[in-house]
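Structure (tokenized):
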């Protein structure tokens, strides 16, 4: 039985593209950020592997201004199973999206 899934999805976005007029990922009005862009794929992967919906979500992110540029998420599934997900718009952030500044933390149980 599979009890854990780890999934990372990151991309390198060049410095010249890290502004709203050059790339929608840096434009809040058009749905910016690594979570909006990349996390859906990794969550779908975990849901497919486990064959069910998560029961809780725990996340932290890294921000540049108002834009999340990296995030780490843990999804809890029934049967004490977990998925650990990392996403980033910069490859060095993919494995560890938490640092002292710009930290976001949420915890929400899902019914």
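Design, position by position:
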């Amino acid at each position: 039985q599979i009890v854990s899934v780890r999934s990372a999805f990151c991309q390198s976005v060049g410095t010249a593209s890290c502004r709203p007029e050059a790339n929608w990922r840096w434009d809040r009005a058009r749905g910016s950020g690594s979570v909006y862009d990349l996390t859906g794929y990794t969550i779908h992967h975990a849901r497919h592997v486990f064959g069910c919906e998560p029961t809780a979500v725990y996340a932290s992110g890294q921000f540049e201004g108002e834009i999340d540029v990296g995030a780490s998420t843990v999804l809890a599934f029934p049967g004490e199973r977990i998925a650990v997900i990392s996403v980033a718009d910069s490859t060095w952030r993919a494995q560890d999206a938490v640092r002292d500044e710009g930290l976001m933390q949420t915890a929400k149980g899902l019914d």
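Reviewer-requested clarification: Residues 34-50 form the longest helix (17 residues). The beta strands are 4-10, 56-64, 67-77, 81-88, 104-109.
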